[in-house]
Request: fold
Amino acid sequence: MSDGLFDGVLAAGPVAEQVGDRAWLQAMLDFEGALALASAEAGVLPADAAELIARSCRAEDYDIAEIGARAVGIGNPAGPLVRALTARVPAEAAAYVHLGATSQDVSDTAAMLVTARAFDVLRGELRECGVLLARSAETYAGTVMAGRSLLQQAPPVTFGLTAAGWLSGIAAAIDRLDEIRRDRLAVQFGGAVGTLAALGDKGIPVLSGIARQLGLAEPALPWHTERSRIAEVAAVSGQTCGAVAKIARDITLLAQTEIGELSERGPAGSGGSSTMPHKRNPVAAVLAAGSAGQAPGLVAALLGAAAHEHQRAAGSWHAEWRPLSELLRTTGSAVHWLRTSLERLHVDTHRMRANLDETAGLLLAENVATALVSASEGAVGRQAATDTVADRCREALAGTGELADLLAADPVITKYLERRRIDELLDPTTYLGSTDEFIRRTLDNWRTQS
Reply:
């Protein structure tokens, strides 16, 4: 766990609270309480004893540091927690604590609860990002800007389409998050080797009761050594961080001094530098990218721990605990900082147009070549048209003249395209294709989802 020095930067936002030590301890106790209540419903233990156990399952009543220190005895914190819980409940209920369960049942179910609670908060943060992006997609649907390919100017797009593309990644993450939250976050309850033999014919009813009590899915069978659920949590967290990182990277690139199409306008003191008074860094986007950048390694750690031996693993289960917490935490931080960046985002539409016009029509060269093929009815093939226009572009870049004039002086081009038509083709607003429809479809999908 972090000592706190970097928490404000890399453990920011409301998800962090859901994955801390106290949250884990409460989730473990929630399992024990649900186990007792479900066992009483199934007739395994007296209802009064179950109530006494459940009332003793409050994390604030336990010493986290002491339980952690005692965990070395059996290699996990569930054992000492069960002992502490047993010591706390009245004598008539103590015999029924943890009945039929094993340590991994406690920890794995706690992992699912911690993940579920983190996902619930994370979804809210993601949805707020989506709302902001949908607003930008709609507001700037007609704001033309340079498209960029391999970091070079390419045919025009609109900032609305850019925002819609960002929104699409966020919406996809929410979709997958919802699916896993609903179907794949499941109770773990199998006893020593996944048979629930200690409960006789009451095992399945107790399992069903625990799932109902905790609001988790009921698995077909215990998953002690079948770790696809953990892998899916890792994957959707990585997917979410990937969507965040793409947006954050674009924002930082578009905020460069030489481009200046976006900027963050945060409170006084945000975005400054320790040595350069002039700096106005897009700090929230930077921190979103920094948080998201930790995800791939953590995802890999969880996938690497997926091979569990026989019915209970020797070490692979233990290897999941910290990476899972850190992955949920850093995903929450990344989304929090993205939301902050989007809330601060300033769009400079004038700079977008100025950058678009800087190349005097060069990025519309494809439009001219395509029109030449069409106007000549194929007499000038696509490759020949591209080569002819490319020659004129090279002359323009070399300083021979303006592109429009050079195109209008080319005998092959002017045979089929008048100067007026050339000027039209070099207007970026005429070469946006299906942009409006793509934005509309993205926004329709978002409204349906949310």
In short: DSSP finds 21 helices and four strands in the chain. Residues 272-278 have pLDDT under 50 and may be disordered.
